[in-house]
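ok so i was messing around last nite and threw this chain in just to see what happens. nothing serious, just curious
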Amino acid sequence: MRTQGIGRRTTQRIGRTTRTWTALAAVGALALTGCGGDADGDGSKEDPPAGGSGTPRASVELPKLAGEKIEVAAVWTGPEQENFTKVLKEFEKRTGATVTFVPAQDPIVTFLGTKVAGGQPPDVALLPQVGALVSAVQNKWAQPLGPEAQAQLDKNYSPGWKALGAVGGTQYGVYYKAANKSLVWYNAKAFKAAGAQVPKTWKEFLTTADTVSASGVPAVSVGGADGWTLTDWFENIYLSQAGPEKYDKLAKHEIKWTDDSVKQALATLAELFGRKDFLAGGQSGALATEFPKSVTQTFTGGEQPAAAMVFEGDFVAVNIAQTEARIGTDALVFPFPAVGAKSPVVSGGDVAVALKPSKGAQALLTFLASPDAAEIQARQGGFVSPNKAVDFAAYPNDIQRDIAKALIAAGDDFRFDMSDQAPAAFGGTPGAGEWKALQDFLKNPADIAGTQARLEADAAKAYGR
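result:
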């Protein structure tokens, strides 16, 4: 699978403006003040929505589909899957269709290829990588967006998010879900007990990690069993340290992974991964920890959790909701610390695409492109939509509301997840490519040169160079 065509799209080359930093700074300020918490002392885990009754609105007209059966595939599990199911239930209510969620596995391109080969593709799939969309189009699986869905997309999305769902000038996908993947969530009680300060720079982050670890609580919980979390660590450091131009070139493999800028980023990451006392369970424990556990173990145990911090996107809120921690009081957040001049802003997302030329598939894409669908899932927490028509009051607390506002305020000024732009063989396959190379690096952070060599060999093979 090749992604050079995607690299030429303007979305991945756009620079950041002051709006991005100002908006994200608001999230950091919110974390420091603890807004959105249990100000009234009523014990509630989250604030109620700022406005509205919580009743799903109906801003888009959908066809009647009584008797039609629709399958939707995605790699979501647990609370994320449960929350999306609520969206599908509303679609069923409005159309009369029966919708079945089909759990997919990574890499989703392989999963879908098996379904297509067996003559049973799902009607709609939500793809977590840009490269997966390109592959679906190249394999002639994907169906172009119909006029009703296109109208919703034109009305509710910025040009950048629309471009990410297009291939070769044809619109195929709707970015239903977005993510701000440049956030660090922390346990407020553990920070207070340690006397730790919220950092703004990488140097301050390491000092905070030292302070927390000295108190008897490991600083950071890393979900190393899921290799994609490690790519997110690398990408945030690389973007802040090497800058957006280098980031764009590495994303398209226009520079090699043996470049000195990669060496510097890995050396910076090794300052964290190389400290066994900084990591919950040390390196071996981190490699055995899956992403959901990396979050929940950070927010259980009172002042003595398994770790004081966990890095990942806004979707962490879904997993925090599975604990007793209250977002805005017990669980706070700050922007990924600046390694270079500024903190990074890395975004990701899931694009919905029709794999069957059916009326039901296009109707579901129309629904997913409307604010109606996104507002249902936004109320559940741990979800951010790039749909600019979504009512911010739908988000359940001030922290998540401000994260959503920052995303919309940034407009097209962001960098998309680098591994998600890559061919799936390199950037999106468990036990292979970048995921495996960075897992090996977590196991042995001193082997920077060997890690670079493996990354370059795998990238060259995946990009066909």
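not much to say yet. The two ends are 12 Å apart (CA to CA).
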